[in-house]
Amino acid sequence: MGGILEGEVEVTGDIEIGDMAKVKASLAGGDVSVNGHLTGPVVARKRLIVGRSGSVTGDVRVARLAIQDGASFSGKVTMGAGAVEAAPRPKVPEPEVVQAPAPTPDPEPVVAMEKPAPVEMPAPIVVAPPVVVARADGKAKAMPPKPMPPKVIPPKGKQKKR
Predict the structure, then answer these.
(1) Is 110 domain-assigned?
(2) Which residues are CB-neighbours of 52 under 8 A, at least 6 positions away?
(3) Is position 43 within any domain?
(4) Which is the most buried residue in 61, 124, 135, 136, by most CB within 10 A?
């Protein structure tokens, strides 16, 4: 850590406080190394090392303790494997239980309507002119056209299959 820190730090790994750091916090970690200024309680599950330029003000619970020549320490020390196991855990505030608002009934589902296929007008009925048929006797006779079924024209574009 470097810079200024206030609060609580609890990690499963190691903590190192740099030369220029100023920390006001409770610390809990494996190996804790202090080279800056620390104010607050410390729990070091493995070892606490206060370096030459470090200062610690606060009670410590450690498995092992090393204070280097030139370091500053003020506080109560509880040392040994049992001290670390008996260390009180920092209280973490319980999350607030907030009741969610009652669900509102779902509105009617919106059904997407497909565009209706364009309506094509039926093909106009074309009446063919009468057919003139020549007869063997030389007289022509007009014959009415044969009725034809209406022609179905499919709509333009592709239709979706259902």
Answers:
(1) no
(2) 35, 68, 69, 70, 71
(3) yes
(4) 61
- What residues does 60 pair with on adjacent strands? 42, 77
Query: Would 108 be classed as within a structural domain?
Result: no
What tens-digit pLDDT sequence spans the chain (162 residues)? 777 888 888 888 898 988 888 989 898 999 999 999 999 999 999 999 999 999 999 999 998 999 999 999 999 998 877 766 755 554 445 556 556 666 666 666 666 666 666 666 666 665 556 655 555 666 656 566 666 666 666 666 655 555
- How many residues are present in the chain? 162
Give the chain's domain count: 1
pTM of the predicted structure, to 2 decimals: 0.52
Identify residue 81 by its one-letter amino acid code: A
Contact of 48 with 62, CB cutoff 8 Å: yes
Q: State the residue range of the domain holding 32.
A: 4-85
